[in-house]
TrEMBL record:
One of its GO terms (molecular function) is transmembrane transporter activity. The keyword Transmembrane applies. The keyword Flavoprotein does not apply. It is a multi-pass membrane protein. This is Iron-hydroxamate transporter, permease subunit. It is found in: Cell membrane. CDD domains: TM_ABC_iron-siderophores_like. Signal peptide: none annotated. Keywords: Cell membrane, Membrane, Plasmid, Transmembrane, Transmembrane helix, Transport. PANTHER family: FE(3+) DICITRATE TRANSPORT SYSTEM PERMEASE PROTEIN FECD-RELATED, FERRIC ENTEROBACTIN TRANSPORT SYSTEM PERMEASE PROTEIN. GO terms for cellular component: plasma membrane. It comes from the Bacteria.
Length: 655
């Protein structure tokens, strides 16, 4: 009994500290109004307190508890400490469904936003869990599928918002997680929905606890695993959908709250599921109270979801070295039937495909009447001068991102590692944001700031993961935390209304619209030089994945070689992000496709990945420029829409 009390003491203390800190911040907000004398007649301050501030804080408590419970359920039933509504794509699916319905079938919103969000979340969860079931619910396949789906849904939502700004502009702040309220309608609707799901969770807590014994042992005790997974996943999806429908996407709570509960002493599933909602409620309550206190009258215009990530990311990074992860990432199984062709065949096919795509990008387009035309005649030189910089900048950027992804995956032994997933692209974005808001430099200055941001993120990841010898789980968790924090800071900057925020958002979408000959030449030169250096390091990349002992035996300096290769990947990421933004997805897609083609050694894999990445970005630029002409869809977003379904298909085929 004393041991049980000690186990609960830590989570209880964390919950109490968070809730007390939130109450102190709330008292600073509401104290002057409550302690003042009541006004005669219509008291605007008390009306704002009763019908805006209090409902907002109640919504924060309910939303935080629901998201934390959702994350705890996902982590327990899927046996994955990285699972939460954000990493599994559930929140992104709900957001996309609401954006699509708002644009094309607005009448359905009147029938019920919860139904729309629930359908979107359920579809996303079905896709991710379906892929996970084909590979025994391995943490690797689940989180990779979830991140891919999140990126795809986010890219499609961004494209729809970009093309319909007049109708969907108001969704920007809401989509980032806005808790602003004008009445008690939303908290009152949330309380019974969350309460109903919590009751269902209480009924399945015992069989859920038996999963710690293993699938065979729990099945021998009478647990019906398939039915249990369906019920628990449905509860977790419903909680995330209800919150997304009410206040938008608030990420990170479902990941941080169970992690804090586990680190503070919650060991058994019943403890994790009980304390995680309390900690999640305290986290979101504190974040929103501090936001309102600091922002004053602008609190309604700052996304609380972004501020939550700013609070939670450093906390998770600080506690990461103490986290004992029980569920090791599973490496994908080796091919049973390796390809019989020579490795030169897929490389030649990729090279020819890139040549065809470049030719089409330069010569094929839309005419004044909207029909397809092949470039010729007297306007050939002028149109080529416009198209060529965009095509070759996309070519160089795609190649650099793919090679950077190959380096990161080989160094970490983690097929999920890429500039996008590990937050390196987000770090470059943060550097560019500082450049735009601070001194507004040209291309060289932006490149320097982007390099600084990318290298900073890499440094933090290395420092937080070195004690675990760069275990894939810790590297990935650090990348997710940093990416969320950087994206949150950029989101706060973008919501300020500063005119430079418009430029930042356009750049983040990955548009090549403003690329000229000078930028394209610089991008191509940087890409050629950095890729050449990467190819020269092929011996390191073949030996380093074997481990420290073989590396030292052949005379390779382990620390210096890792540092140099990580720095090289950061340089390539920064240079590519300047042109195609942080959402390109090529750094994850290119190495996977090269590996599927049988290119496993470092040199052929990097060459194949570079060609695939270059071709994917050129194709994305061409499609974005022509598919809805005269409008242009950013190439970075289009590449995510092209690459994600392809990678999901490959994952579904792998055993």
């Amino acid at each position: 009994m004393k041991a049980i009390h000690r186990e609960n003491l830590g989570p209880a203390l964390v919950s109490l500290v968070l809730l007390c800190a939130g109450c102190m911040a709330f008292w600073l907000l509401a104290g002057p109004v409550l302690s003042g004398s009541a006004g005669q007649g219509y008291d605007i301050q008390r009306m704002m307190l009763y019908y805006s501030t209090l409902p907002r804080l109640a919504t924060a408590l309910l939303a935080g508890a629901a998201l934390a419970l959702s994350g705890a359920l996902f982590q327990q039933v899927l046996r994955n400490p990285l699972a939460d509504p954000t990493t599994l794509g559930v929140s992104a699916g709900a957001n996309l469904a609401l954006v699509v319905v708002s644009l094309f079938i607005p009448g359905l919103l009147g029938a019920g936003r919860d139904i729309v969000a629930l359908l979107g979340s359920s579809a996303a969860a079905a896709i991710v869990v379906g892929f996970g079931a084909r590979r025994g619910f391995s943490p690797y396949s689940l989180v990779l599928s979830g991140l891919v789906l999140s990126l795809w849904c986010g890219g499609l939502s961004a494209i729809l918002t970009y093309l319909n700004q007049r109708y969907l502009a108001s969704l920007f702040i809401w989509g980032a997680g806005s808790l602003a309220q004008q009445s008690w309608v939303i908290p009152l609707s949330l309380i019974w929905k969350v309460g109903t799901v919590a009751i269902i969770c209480a009924l399945v807590i015992r069989p859920l606890s038996l999963l710690d014994l293993g699938e065979s042992s729990s099945a021998a005790l009478g647990v019906r695993l398939a039915r249990l997974r369906i019920v628990v996943v449905a509860c977790a999806v419903a909680l995330a959908a209800f919150v997304t429908s009410a206040v938008g996407v608030i990420g990170f709570i479902g990941l941080v709250a169970p992690t804090l509960a586990r680190l503070s002493g919650a060991r058994r599933p019943v403890q994790l599921i009980f304390w995680s909602p309390l900690i999640g409620a305290g986290l979101l309550f504190l974040a929103d109270s501090v936001l309102q206190l600091a922002a004053g009258g602008f609190g309604d215009f700052l996304p609380t979801g972004a501020v939550t990530a700013i609070f939670g990311s450093p906390l998770l990074l600080a506690l990461l070295p103490r986290l004992k992860i029980r569920h090791r990432m599973q490496q994908p199984a080796a091919r049973r039937h390796p390809p019989t062709w020579n490795i030169k065949v897929p490389v030649a096919i990729a090279a020819v495909s890139v040549l065809v795509l470049v030719t089409a990008g330069l010569l094929v387009g839309r005419g004044p009447g909207g029909g397809w035309t092949v470039l010729s005649g007297e306007f050939l030189d002028k149109l080529l001068a416009i198209r060529a910089p965009k095509v070759f900048a996309a070519l160089a950027s795609g190649a650099m991102l793919a090679v950077a992804g190959s380096i990161l995956q080989r160094l970490t032994g983690n097929e999920m590692a890429s500039p996008e997933v590990l937050g390196i692209s987000a770090g470059a974005t943060f550097g560019v944001a500082i450049a735009l808001f601070a001194i507004a430099p040209g291309f060289s200055g932006q490149f320097a700031f982007a390099v600084g941001g990318a290298i900073s993120v890499l440094t933090v990841i290395l420092l937080s993961s070195r004690r675990s010898t760069f275990a894939p789980e810790r590297v990935l968790l650090a990348g997710i935390a940093l990416s969320a924090m950087v994206d949150a800071i950029v989101g706060v900057l973008s919501s300020t209304g500063d005119p430079r925020a418009v430029l930042l958002m356009r750049w983040m979408s990955g548009s090549t619209y403003l690329v000229d000959g000078t930028i394209a030449t610089a991008e191509a030169a940087i890409g050629a030089a950095l890729i050449a250096v990467a190819l020269a390091a092929r011996r390191w990349l073949d030996i380093l994945p074997l481990g420290p002992a073989p590396t030292a035996a052949v005379g390779i300096p382990l620390a210096r070689s890792r540092l140099a290769l990580f720095g090289l990947s950061g340089l390539m990421t920064a240079a590519a992000t300047l042109t195609v933004g942080p959402l390109s997805f090529v750094g994850l897609m290119g190495p996977h496709l090269a590996r599927e083609a049988g290119l496993t050694r470092a040199l052929p894999q990097m060459i194949g990945a570079a060609l695939i990445g270059a071709g994917l970005m050129v194709a994305a630029d061409f499609v974005g420029r022509t598919i809805v002409a005269p409008y242009q869809i950013p190439a970075g977003l289009v590449s995510a829409l092209i690459g994600a379904p392809c990678l999901m298909f490959l994952l579904s085929r792998r055993r």
